[in-house]
Fold TRIM2_3.
Amino acid sequence: MMIDYKEGNITTQSINNLVGFTSSKKPDVRFSLLQSHPTDLSSIITIVTVTPNIAWFVHNISNTQSKKLQKIEIGQDITKIDEHDVILSDVDVSPSGELFAAFTMEGCIKRLTSSGNFEIFYSCSPLILRGLHITKSGYVLIGVRESGTAFPITDHSSRQVLIVNNEKKLTKTLEFDPFGNRLFSVPLQITTNNNGDICVVDSVSMTEGRVVAVRELAETIKWEYLGHRSVNSRKFPFNPDGIVCTRTGNIIVCEKKTNTLHILSEFGAFIHCQNLETSLGIRWPCSLTIDSTEQLWIGCSAAATEPRYAKFHILKFRGI
């Protein structure tokens, strides 16, 4: 294979376009708390908004399953407007406003119809579903693994992100890079950034995780983030939970056990860490979404002493 070299000058901008950039100027990242509300749930493992005052919550029962999907509306009070007893790992809303849900043990994605019933959109059985994300163009991204225990990973393990179009056709399976290396261990949460990269919260053990960005076309890992020394250590290894991308392309990741938001650039470069407990009194954040007004919603777990009063919070942010 011949490598074609192009003539030209290497500039700071061209390097920035390839690998990002660093700056000696500290970014002016700010968060302000707008609203906090209790729920009757023990943990909100997924949160997606339909409008700036209507959202869907997935309620956690154990580390891997939930059995409640709840729709709420914020008015003078919090009103529960829909509820389903279902075992889910994730949900997302399509560009047209339809709710899609990952039915964990059934191994299928279902769509909520206007009649209030779920119909199968795509089956991944016998695989177990984890993360779910719908792109702006309507593609459905599904994180899956084989049945059984998550670890250890063997040569027979299937750890994939499936890409399905709106005609219910599988267009790509992401599992290995061109050299045979696994792209994922357990793809728990999925989103996409402005570059079109697939950004994944990937669990690498029962206590540790990472964030990886994968180029869909090249099927390679573009970058990975393993936490920051100001927060994480051998005693507190990085173990991310929720992920969301901002309008500018930056990435926000929440980490429940350290009550932290990790802010990354679209190139995976560290920008900022925000301790939510010390700055805003928010504890145990485990899910994130950004609504159409660019406000950040955070779903949390409840305290052990109040197991059915998990809170969600709405924040305004700047600088990212």
